């Protein structure tokens, strides 16, 4: 196919407080292109379709194999990873926008530190005594591993937050990813010992109660994590925990 | 970042209460309400007998206030607050559950308005006493039939979908299979309520008493 | 007692492990990373982590692990440290297990182990086919826990520019640039640990992540740190060639029984499934009966090159061979390899559970790196430590699969405490260094940045980078000819000249990624020369370094470590003897058991 073209429309803002401008670029098609290759092509020749000199588009990307979570953006309106968005499967013009639920930095770059703060807030870790040699870890059934492992593949891309109607400037909702992580740590033999701490955190402002079951999260998760299952499971944990602590003072 | 422990649970409590109140007492009351009104499908006399029995229960006002009006008022007002806290995005993402999310909000506001109208007309304007003839008289007006039909359909959907939401939000249905089953159960609830509700309207409108054979 | 101040640059496995160890000693850490640490390149490691826990009744032991590693590395690794690492590995697995890594389990609830290249034992613990991700997350979570009690202060979105060296040449801190505000600032520290990972970007399309440019190592090298064994570059035999990168298809695919083959009839255009068994050429199994598909990577890569380029038996439609797991039960594949099969499906299309994957070798790992001493992970600059892929210590001339995760974590475990020890023993801490030392370095770095911002010209950094990648991949990876390497050195000089004429096309001072990339590119060009010059000098074949003109290993002349030094803009090579005190070098061949 000689000289097949791709049209890419990018929503740009040089700084968060600047007005939006849309720029359109025309690129040379090559087989197996993805959105990242498009953005690199633009960086190599940042000239818009109408011949105006522009600048390379800022975007986040790292592993390029959908395992680091960096390159989430809105591609034709859908939150997804740019690396696994193959040009062959995309309707043209390809529309690129930054995620809208996180503070904008520049062009397609947003600040997703909220997710990491929320992981901290919800104590998403196994509290080990130390890294010195304390022997083997706890035994775990293959069944527990097979439930836990898919949850442990969350790449903190933020797509589930982007698509959630309840994540917005009115709420502090932590989002499906964090709830699912709480489920993961509450399932681990050692993590279990501190399940109450995590559940307490998930009962605070922005906690699990903000979920209104639109079940969008599970549709956009690039890793196919059973997020709605996690939310329901943690809902059960939270209610049992609330009743137990309220009635008996301990979990 | 402040420690998570000891944070306020107010919004958790209110959210869960809102969710629960939709099932008990509101959903339960709706079932009772539809059942009692189904006596209209037996005969006007039976209906009037049951109505007057209900109108003369002891402690009527506090019972009505605590078990019906207050829960509905809370469920509705807090529901609107929850609605305001969400940003629907079904345009562009027209998935089934996302539609249900949006419809739950729209039906909620419709039902809330309808209940206001319903209670005002048949509870307050009638001074707490209504007879078969009164209702049949209302139902002679096609506009009122339309309003009631919309109200009943919206309420049935809202309750049926609410049952599904409740199953997920209280952790009763965790796996995709059980959530799907809960969804079908919710759909069944919605259909049953819609059929009964519409039948009751039809009964009043057309003086239709299919169950008079029991007499 | 005065509290030492430690900076760690890089938040992959090694950096996070070092951070945890320092924080555990009660010493606060400033952790610098270009990306949020959870997005570091360690997430890309797939197959597993080696430790001779001998849970399969095969009589495996740390010594055998040690022997496999040294033999696999063609005897270029200093043996003492490798032995220590192999001895520490079982406890490292236990530690990771305690941290909650979702390792695959046996029915008894114990860790499951799989086979990997270069060994005959089941020695590799794994979490599906995303082991690196799972390990990184476990360490990330531990670091977050230390962060929540203020023992760790993260500087994510900062890039390292240079070390701050006092007049005695001792490191007193770092100079870094904020990638959002583009501020150039210095940060004092008593000791700095570098865990800045790989250098894949120098080869354009590699299996590495975007941040793996080697920029930090190169900057340190240009400030006087020695760089060792730069010429040893691992090319992974099985990757999916791509426009933007080559995506790894883990060795674990073969560890679980995957087979590499091509049709016996060159140019056979039948669908793979339609080619009967007896018309398939399982060349690794035929050539290396003992190890079969699990020969070390350098061997497998050269075999694929031979099949494709010498025997002209590659698959039609591009240089590739089949990596076939379609004979393995679907349930096993989903439980043990889903992560990588998903990558193939998403980026190529066909379901590898149904039909063989098309793969080809791609640059994957650098065995070489910053020179560090034997026991402390200390570089040649006082106060600067290094761990992980950015240092050279554990893998000799070729790394065995699933040894990188263990070396990263082991290196981090040593580097953390040894940096603290060094800092505590310092006569004068960094606070005694005059402000002028810091300001001098800051101004120097600011000048470089300003120079680039104001530079006029017609060159584009991406274009130069693409040309760099092409020439390096062509001449400095699998097969190396001296004439071609000389040409490469010339090309690098040309690119360095053109680099001076780069026009940034983005002169803003806010999240200017072009500026940052161009700074990194400058450092890549220097490190590329180290690799090329090292390869040019080493006239032998050892591990991943293969010269058809010198096809044998030459212990008499070349059993030595290459040491590159930077002196007034010139790269000089020196050599150091290798410690072979524990296992005497023997011939390396995988046709039969070692």
The number of E-state strands of chain C comes to 21
Shape call of chain C = globular
Q: Report how far the terminal alpha carbons of chain C are from each other.
A: 53 Å
Structural Rg of chain A: 21 Å
Characterise the protein shown here.
The complex is a heterotrimer of chains A (about 250), B (about 220) and C (about 600). Chain A is built from eight helices and seven strands; from the N terminus they run E-E-H-E-E-E-E-E-H-H-H-H-H-H-H. Chain A has about 250 residues and is α+β, with helices and mostly antiparallel strands. Chain A has two domains: about 5-110, Ubiquitin-like (UB roll) (Roll); about 115-130 and about 140-250, Alpha-helical ferredoxin (Fumarate Reductase Iron-sulfur Protein, Chain B, domain 2), CATH 1.10.1060.10. The mean pLDDT of chain A is about 95. With about 220 residues, chain B is mainly alpha-helical. Chain B has one domain: Fumarate reductase/succinate dehydrogenase, transmembrane subunit (3 helical TM bundles of succinate and fumarate reductases, Up-down Bundle), CATH 1.20.1300. Chain B is about 75% helix and about 0% strand. Chain B is built from seven helices and no strands. Chain B has helices spanning about 10-35, 45-55, 60-85, 95-125, 130-140, 140-170, 175-205. Chain B is globular and about 55 Å long. The N and C termini of chain B lie far apart (about 70 Å). Chain C is built from 16 helices and 21 strands. Chain C has helices spanning about 15-25, 60-70, 80-100, 130-150, 215-220, 250-255, 285, 295-310, 330-335, 340-345, 405-425, 435-455, 460-475, 480-500, 515-535, 555-560, and strands at about 5-10, 30-35, 50, 115, 120-125, 150-155, 160-165, 170-180, 185-190, 190-195, 225-230, 235-240, 245-250, 260-265, 280, 320-325, 355-365, 370, 385, 560-565, 570-575. A six-stranded antiparallel beta sheet of chain C has the order 13-12-17-16-14-15. In chain C, strands 6-2-1-10-19 form a five-stranded parallel beta sheet. Chain C has a four-stranded antiparallel beta sheet with strand order 18-11-20-21. Chains A and C meet through helix 1, helix 2 and helix 3 of A and helix 1, helix 3, helix 4, strand 13 and helix 10 of C.
């Amino acid at each position: 196919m000689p000289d097949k073209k791709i049209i890419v429309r990018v929503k740009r803002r040089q700084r968060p407080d600047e007005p939006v401008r849309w720029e359109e670029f025309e690129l040379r098609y090559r087989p197996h292109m993805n959105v990242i290759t498009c953005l690199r092509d633009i960086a190599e020749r940042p000239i818009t379709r109408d011949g105006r000199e522009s600048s390379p588009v800022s975007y986040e990307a790292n592993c390029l194999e959908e395992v680091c979570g960096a390159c989430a953006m809105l591609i034709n309106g859908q939150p997804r990873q740019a690396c696994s968005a193959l040009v062959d499967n995309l309707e043209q013009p390809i529309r690129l926008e930054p995620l809208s639920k996180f503070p904008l930095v520049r062009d397609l770059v947003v600040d997703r530190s909220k997710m990491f703060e929320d992981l901290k807030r919800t104590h998403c870790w196994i509290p080990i005594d130390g890294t010195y040699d304390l022997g083997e870890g706890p035994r775990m059934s293959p069944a527990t591993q097979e439930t836990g492992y898919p949850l442990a593949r969350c790449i903190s891309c933020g797509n589930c937050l982007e698509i959630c109607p309840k994540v917005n400037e009115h709420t502090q909702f932590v989002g499906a990813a964090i709830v699912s992580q709480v489920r993961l740590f509450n399932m681990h033999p050692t993590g279990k010992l501190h399940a109450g701490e995590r559940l307490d955190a998930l009962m605070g402002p922005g906690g699990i109660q903000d979920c209104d079951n639109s079940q969008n999260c599970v549709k956009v998760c690039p890793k196919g994590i059973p997020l709605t299952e996690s939310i329901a499971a943690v809902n059960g944990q939270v209610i049992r925990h609330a009743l137990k602590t309220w009635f008996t003072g301990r979990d | 970042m402040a420690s998570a422990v000891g944070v306020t649970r107010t919004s958790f409590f209110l959210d869960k209460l809102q969710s629960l109140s939709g099932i008990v007492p509101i959903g339960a009351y709706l079932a009772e309400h539809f059942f009692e009104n189904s006596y209209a499908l037996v005969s006007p006399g039976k209906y009037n007998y049951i109505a007057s029995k209900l109108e003369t229960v002891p402690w009527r006002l506090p019972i009505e206030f605590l078990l019906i009006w207050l829960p509905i008022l809370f469920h509705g007002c807090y529901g609107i607050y929850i609605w305001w806290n969400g940003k629907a995005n079904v345009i562009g993402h027209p998935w089934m559950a996302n539609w249900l999310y949006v419809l739950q909000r729209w039906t909620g506001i419709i039902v809330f308005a309808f209940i206001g109208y319903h209670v005002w007309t048949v509870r307050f304007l009638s001074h707490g006493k209504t007879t078969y003839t009164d209702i049949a008289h209302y139902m002679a007006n096609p506009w009122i039939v339309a309003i009631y039909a919309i109200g009943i359909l919206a309420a049935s959907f809202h309750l049926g979908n609410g049952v599904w939401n409740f199953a997920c939000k209280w952790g009763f249905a965790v796996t995709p299979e059980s959530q799907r089953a809960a969804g079908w159960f919710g759909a069944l609830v919605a259909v049953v309520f819609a059929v009964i509700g519409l039948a009751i309207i039809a009964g009043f409108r057309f003086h239709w008493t299919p169950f008079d054979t029991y007499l | 007692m005065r509290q030492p101040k430690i900076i760690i640059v890089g938040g992959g496995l090694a950096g996070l492990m070092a951070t945890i160890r320092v924080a555990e000693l009660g010493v606060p850490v400033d952790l610098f990373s270009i990306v949020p640490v959870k997005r570091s390149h360690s997430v890309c490691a797939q197959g597993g982590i080696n430790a001779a826990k001998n849970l399969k009744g095969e009589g495996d032991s740390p010594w055998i692990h040690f022997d496999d590693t040294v033999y696999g590395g063609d005897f270029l690794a200093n043996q003492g440290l490798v032995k220590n690492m192999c001895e520490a590995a079982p406890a490292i697995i236990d530690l990771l297990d305690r941290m909650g890594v979702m390792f695959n389990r046996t029915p008894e609830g114990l860790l499951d182990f799989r086979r990997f290249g270069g060994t005959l034992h089941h020695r590799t613990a794994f979490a599906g086919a995303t082991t690196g991700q799972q390990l990184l997350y476990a360490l990330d979570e531990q670091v977050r826990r230390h962060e929540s009690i203020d023992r760790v202060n993260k500087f994510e979105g900062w890039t390292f520019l240079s070390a701050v060296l006092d007049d005695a040449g001792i490191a007193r801190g770092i100079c870094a640039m904020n990638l959002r505000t583009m501020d150039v600032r210095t940060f004092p520290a008593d000791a700095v640990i570098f865990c800045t990972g790989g250098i894949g970007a120098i080869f354009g399309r590699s299996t590495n992540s975007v941040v793996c440019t080697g920029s930090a190592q190169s900057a340190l090298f240009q400030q006087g740190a020695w760089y060792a064994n730069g010429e040893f570059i691992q090319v992974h035999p099985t990757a999916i060639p791509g426009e933007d990168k080559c995506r790894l298809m883990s060795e674990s695919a073969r560890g679980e029984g995957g087979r590499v083959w091509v049709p016996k009839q060159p140019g056979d255009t039948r669908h793979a499934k339609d080619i009967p068994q007896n018309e398939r050429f399982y060349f690794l199994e035929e050539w290396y009966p003992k190890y079969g598909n699990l020969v070390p990577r350098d061997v497998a890569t050269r075999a694929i090159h031979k099949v494709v380029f010498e025997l002209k038996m590659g698959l039609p439609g591009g240089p590739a061979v089949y990596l076939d797991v379609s004979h393995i039960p679907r349930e096993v594949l989903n439980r043990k390899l889903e992560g990588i099969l998903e990558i193939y499906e998403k980026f190529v299309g066909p379901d590898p559970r149904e039909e063989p994957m098309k793969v080809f070798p791609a640059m994957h790992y650098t065995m070489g790196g910053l020179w560090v001493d034997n026991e402390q992970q200390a570089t040649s600059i006082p106060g600067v430590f290094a761990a992980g892929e950015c240092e050279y210590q554990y893998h000799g001339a070729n790394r065995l699969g699933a040894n990188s995760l263990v070396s990263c974590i082991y290196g981090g475990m040593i580097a953390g405490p040894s940096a603290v020890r060094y800092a505590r023993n310092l006569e004068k801490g960094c606070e005694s260094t005059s402000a002028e030392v810091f300001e001098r370095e800051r101004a120097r770095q600011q000048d470089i940045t300003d120079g680039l911002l104001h530079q006029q010209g017609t060159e584009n950094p991406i274009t130069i980078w693409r040309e760099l990648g092409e020439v390096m991949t062509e001449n400095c990876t699998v097969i190396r000819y001296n004439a071609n390497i000389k040409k490469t050195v010339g090309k690098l000089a040309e690119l360095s000249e053109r680099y001076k004429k780069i026009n940034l096309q983005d002169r803003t001072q806010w999240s200017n990624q072009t500026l940052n990339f161009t700074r990194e590119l400058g450092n890549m060009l220097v490190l590329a020369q180290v690799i090329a010059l090292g390869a040019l000098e080493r006239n032998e074949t050892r591990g991943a370094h293969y010269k058809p003109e010198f096809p044998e290993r030459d212990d008499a002349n070349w059993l030595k470590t290459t040491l590159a030094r930077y002196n007034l803009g010139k790269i000089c090579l020196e050599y150091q003897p290798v410690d072979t005190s524990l296992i005497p070098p023997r011939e390396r061949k995988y046709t039969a058991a070692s």
